[in-house]
Amino acid sequence: MSSKDWLEKDFYAVLGVDKAASADDIKKAYRKVARESHPDHNPGDAKAEERFKAASEAYNVLSDAGRRREYDEMRSLFGSGAFRRNARGGGQPGGVPFDVSDLFGGGAAGGGDRRFGGAGFQDLFSSIFSGGQGAGQAAPRGPARGRDVETEVALDFGDAVRGVTLPLTLRAPGVCDTCHGNGAKPGTQPRTCPVCHGAGVTTRNQGSFSFSEPCRNCQGVGTVVEEKCPECHGSGGVTKTRTMNVRFPAGVADGQRIRLAGRGEPGERGGPAGDLFVHVKVRPDELFGRTGDDLTLTVPVTFAEAVLGTDLRVPTLDGAVTLRVPPGTPSGRVLRARGKGVVRRDGEAGDLLVTLDVVVPARLSDEARTALEAFAEQSPPAAREHLDARVRRVS
């Protein structure tokens, strides 16, 4: 049975006895409820079966002196009967909307445990009922890892396809050059905290309970800086402008995020630095588009070129290629120039996909019109027999 069940369920109310009831009174009450709600005496009655199970669960806890004591202490600590289930399944301690599952990690994003003072709630209860030892013992904090930093960089289309190295200037916290991150005045060193002896936590007793909390003398770090650095005032970091060269690999895509390990904010008191995340925005190109590792290009052709065929000279990002347009090519056909796309990490490259767009002139000269009419008289008609048959049926 979980600690969550102990908070949510009033076992005394289930058996209909007072909290001060003796062991004999609890046994008599359980026998009465069990006899009245036993499934053998109430065949097909789901409610009676639930009452029988609840009574058995309550008696299992209250009949054991040690478990009953732990149950009473826990309910007393967090307010016996204070968790009233609402329509959403949450509780309301003190009249404030509250989901008791949040205490046990049920409401944490991504299914992870929510934390209470740096430890799970199960660990908290383990600490309470074991005198502060075992799983509930808080771990030393020590030097803290620096925060991650995010920035955004806009790349030209060609640079994103080929890859490029660019200088990136950031104004963000960095390691203090005077104390090199330990927060102490040059010539001195942080010393072990005399209160927590470097553990970063202290333990205090309150009645039969033992609680651990971050050391107030060193703020949970475990060390104390007696003579602080005049530059960073003991923090180990300062805000400064720094420039670094960032390599964007060939084929980096719009919206991609590049992680630079250890290039974020410095850690506290010599802790490891965070990471730098660079969000890439790729400026569109006036000619080329991109689909995965393939580049795309639309090329207009005349009606005569599409009918008679031709050789097209088209640009690529690193030169030009010649593509053969076969006679009788329809508008919208895609020609492929292999290996002229985005270079992948394995060294292979995508293709350049050229879409042909047959251009229909809006105006014709008299000579062109005469020639086109002569062509129309000699050319075969379009294959529309299936459409004409449908038109005749619906007319």
TrEMBL record:
Keywords: Chaperone, Cytoplasm, DNA replication, Metal-binding, Repeat, Stress response, Zinc, Zinc-finger. Zn(2+) 1 binds at residues 176, 179, 229, 232. It holds the Pfam family DnaJ. Residues 163-241 form the CR-type domain. GO terms for biological process: DNA replication; protein refolding; response to heat. Its main location: cytoplasm. NCBIfam families: DnaJ_bact, PRK10767.1. Participates actively in the response to hyperosmotic and heat shock by preventing the aggregation of stress-denatured proteins and by disaggregating proteins, also in an autonomous, DnaK-independent fashion. Unfolded proteins bind initially to DnaJ; upon interaction with the DnaJ-bound protein, DnaK hydrolyzes its bound ATP, resulting in the formation of a stable complex. GrpE releases ADP from DnaK; ATP binding to DnaK triggers the release of the substrate protein, thus completing the reaction cycle. Homodimer. This is Chaperone protein DnaJ. It comes from Micromonospora orduensis.
